[in-house]
Recover the amino acids of this structure.
């Protein structure tokens, strides 16, 4: 942990305790199931944060990934390449918010590049690569959970026991 991380932790802790009232921090309401809310309480507690601080960090950190995933799905459906800057170019924002949106779009674009590189790297691995097989089994399991009636035309080789 470096000094910047320590400073951010201290500032977040002070904001949570009410010692700092920042005009830049606003409340938001999110509706979640009781079970998931309790799960977030447990997870947040284990990482040493309040649920509110944990959820704030999750949203701020992973919102660009959610948009990148959305754009990847959108692009694949219309067979066109979209990126964050193209997606947000019609947004009616000016001034500082325009700068924030440009920064956000840049983060989305970088994540999309990372995702494409990851997929290309995975495709380049030989079919019998243990990591590739484990990934393919995981993806198949997720698809079967989401679509229990799905049928697959190819069989996957069995996974060897992890040592």
């Amino acid at each position: 942990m470096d000094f910047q991380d320590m400073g951010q932790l201290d500032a977040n802790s002070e904001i949570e305790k009410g010692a700092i009232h920042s005009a830049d921090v606003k409340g938001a309401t999110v509706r979640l199931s009781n079970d998931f809310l309790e799960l977030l309480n447990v997870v947040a507690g284990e990482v040493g944060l309040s649920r509110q601080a944990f959820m704030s960090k999750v949203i701020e950190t992973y919102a660009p990934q959610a948009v990148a995933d959305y754009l990847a799905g959108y692009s694949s459906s219309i067979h066109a390449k979209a990126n964050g800057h193209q997606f947000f170019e019609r947004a009616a924002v000016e001034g500082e918010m325009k700068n924030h949106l440009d920064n956000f779009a840049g983060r989305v674009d970088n994540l999309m590049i990372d995702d494409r590189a990851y997929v290309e790297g995975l495709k380049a691995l030989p079919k019998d690569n243990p990591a590739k097989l484990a990934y393919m089994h995981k993806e198949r399991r997720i698809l079967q959970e989401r679509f229990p009636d799905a049928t697959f035309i190819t069989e996957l080789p069995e996974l060897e026991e992890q040592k």
Summary: Helices lie at 3-17, 34-46, 51-78, 84-88, 95-124, 130-146. The two ends are 31 Å apart (CA to CA). Residues 95-124 form the longest helix (30 residues).
